[in-house]
Amino acid sequence: MSVQWDGSPPDRAGRRRADGGVRTDDAPRTDDGLRTERPEDGTGRLPAPRPGGRIEARRAAQSRGAPGRTGAAEGGRAAGRGGRRDADRSPARDGRRGARRLIAWSVAGVLVVLAGAGGAVYYKLNGNLRSFDADAVAPDRPPEPTADAHGHRPVNLLLIGSDSRAGNNSDLGGGDEAGARSDTTILLHVYADHRHAVGISIPRDALVTVPRCKLPNGKWTREQSGQMFNSAFSVGNSETGNPACTQNTVERLTGIRVDHTIEVNFEGFAAMTGAVGGVDVCLPNDIHEGHINPNLGRKGKVVLAKGRQRVAGQQALDYVRLRHGIGDDSDVGRMKRQQAFLASLLAKIKSKGLSPGTLLPLADAATRSMTVDPGLDSAAKLMDFALTLKGIDLHEVKFLTTPWRYSGARIDLVHPAVDTLWRTLQADRTIDGQDATGHQADAPAPSAEPTPTPTTAAEPSPIATDGAPIRVTVYNGTSAAGLAARAAETLRAARVTVAGTATSRGTARATTTVEYGAGQRAAAEKVATLFPGAAVAPGQGAGISLLLGRDYAAGGAASGTPSPAATGPSGAPTQLPTEVVNEARSADDDICSNVSYG
């Protein structure tokens, strides 16, 4: 059944026209309240009572004060039968039967209206949704996660908040810059038991490798290293952004397969907060107009007051985008507030109940400004996915930021801590080193020989260069995805300049080798110390090239394989540093705690 829904009220009988309008109620009616048919009514209208029917006969009999009689034929057989039938019908019994018929028809009418409205709502949501091209997803993706003993798989959801100024977003965002950037990016890992989840904020200024991405004209870009993370969303410089490129970049960075991606812009975010009746937040001090817009030139009035408050629409957007006037004015502090806001939003939705009645208004608000991956490109898919999350306990939803450090005006991801984080999620273990059901990793079997501490577990120290920078080009000599990007991160952590990353023509290299040109042997040997077991050999070019082999892939740099720096003796991921775990926020934490930095 397909009904165009326009929100019009029903008529007295609770019916709607198929075109969404209200059925007019000005037609003449009989004394029994039935609507007579007019020539213009056409099909689908109720006809007038049939002449000579039971209603007319009963009315005539009642007017003569002789129930059950039919006039001159009063003593006839037909009259007797009719009299007996009508005599058996007491007014109370007629009332009960009429009430039952009325209830039955009313229930049927309500069901029809609900079915039509439901279909119309889903139709509307489908019309709201936009999805990106499946062909824009990189072909060399990390493998799908394995199922647990019960056949359940973890789910990885990429959440992107964009700052596109297209349409009404310009008014909400307070600017008119062209193109779009990713203001917020969180990788949400839902564990296989669907009762635990952890959201990882990725700093937008973090320096990463942006892989090949599809442009709006259908062409693909070249891989670029040392780029700000949020530049991936800007590839192609379109008004709507490039969420597929951000997904490709996250998969390359983490070695984790992203199952679904959802991008919401300013307008959609503001509408979502209104749909749930506002979200509770907290601030350590007053925020003025000048903090929201540093170009204002004056302090201005208070926009967000100190302490607890409920925000929606523009105020909610101001809260999650706020950088100035609180903490050290950094994006790191802003990520903390975004995590606190999402935790509070989840608590609000959970309190209202994850039912279609709660989710439909929220979905309607969100989908007006939402772009999703092809796997969530319908209202039914989106609702089904949302309902699978209803069993997650708020205390078991954690938020944290990737291990990071300042690098001038930018941010570096800290190794090996960030590698341990990705390996932990790949193994479907919580950030404190347990599986989602609370079991610790198995202890290693006793050994007569002490287990040596892996030398690669420590963060690479900066390479002494005597003032001369070392530049290295990285080549993946295997068929495993993501090796070059990971090796590049290791080099940058040691303050080595990465000139570029690429895949070798041959993909059967066995041993990792550092090749060097004239006068570069000493520098090549320093680079080799970062990759235990790597060979050093003269090369054809003038610079230094790192050729990654199967030994490096087997050591864990390939997607989905724990690296020596991220695993303990038993093969399970080592625990994250205490300071990283302690910074994590639970969705049920106090909304006034941990909302600024510096």
Automatic annotation (TrEMBL):
The chain crosses the membrane at residues 102-123. Pfam families: LytR_C, LytR_cpsA_psr. Residues 1-97, 434-465, 557-576 are annotated as: Disordered. Residues 470-552 form the LytR/CpsA/Psr regulator C-terminal domain. Residues 12-43, 83-97 have a biased composition (Basic and acidic residues). InterPro entries: LytR/CpsA/Psr_C (IPR027381), LytR/CpsA/Psr_CW_biosynth (IPR050922), LytR_CpsA_psr (IPR004474). This is LCP family protein.
